[in-house]
Amino acid sequence: MRKILVRGTIANKPFSGGQSLIPLQYIAGLKRLGFDVLLFEDLSAEECWSERQNPCSFKESVQYDYFVRIMTAFSLAGHSSLLYDHGQDHWGASLEEVRRFARDADALIVIGGGLPPFPDILSAVKKRIYIDQDPVYTQLWSAVYHVDVGFSAADVLFTVGLNIGSEICPIPTCGRNWHKIMPVIDLKFWPFVGTAAPAEKITTVASWRGFAPLEYQGEWYEQKSVEFKRFLRLPSKIKRPVEVALSIDEKEEDLELLRTHGWRLVDPRIHTADPCSYRAYIVHSRAELGIFANAYVKSCSGWLSDRSAAYLASGKPVLVQDTGLANHLPLGTGLIPFTTEDELIAAIDDLDARYDEHCLAARRLAEEYFCAEKVLRKLLAQADLA
Fold it and tell me: Of 245, 232, 239, 237, nearest to 200 (Cα)?
């Protein structure tokens, strides 16, 4: 059986169900395509903390506990490894077992973040594939701020920024060819629900700040808060509640601003703390309000989040802030674009008028464009691994 080694982020972002699902869905798709897959992640001593946010040992950390729970829940206990302190300790496969797997593997797929700090693993695999999950930021960090984000040693690069390298997107390519990849969705994990789980609230899951703003050629590429503030008055202008599972500092002055304007805010650490609670939150929503980071919008990056793809797979329509998607996806039914407040309000009205139609179209979009097997089959072909 052919083998693929996958490096993803689970332990390093505990209690983030959506983040955990990204590598899990890659693994599900690769396994259905007939690959033996080993997921590994490395954790430093500085990255271990207790439930009270205090430094602690590896096996007492929330990172360790979360990784073990998720791997066990997804039947990956025999196909995963959490390496601690450069392999001095581990859960699952040991560093030597990961090295042996790498020697037999057709490829290493790194999903977001840099390449792992194990040169012998990097040199052992036949091909190194880098999946850029943060387009605009990845390229600007490298080209402008000279940060080593890890892709320089990769053989093949992919990005979810569908317009990176095109005429309509000003972001530099760092002299590399970026293949385009859609978000990967495991349709078995996301069964069609549609109107079977009716809900009044329009929702999303978001971080208020995220990455720090970046400057390029005299232009600033800002955070999600910049775009959210453009639509502050939305709750007062529509009849439906708008709720956000929002990661925001309790001392953030914008917190009261959001509440004053009628936004419902819930704690993502409660509502989306693992993949199953994350799925439940999406399933019990009417639709997603996809407001994106200013950097994605301003750059016309062609970005669509894996979160939005999950809503679509559930048969939940997505009101999507336009990042230049028209050349890549059919828009208007199921996936409804907007740029202004008036366009957003009109889109919500259309959503209510044709809700059943939008739900069915949402699922069809997921099946056609985001199905894990389809997306990964194309990735393998472009990486000469088919």
Answer: 239
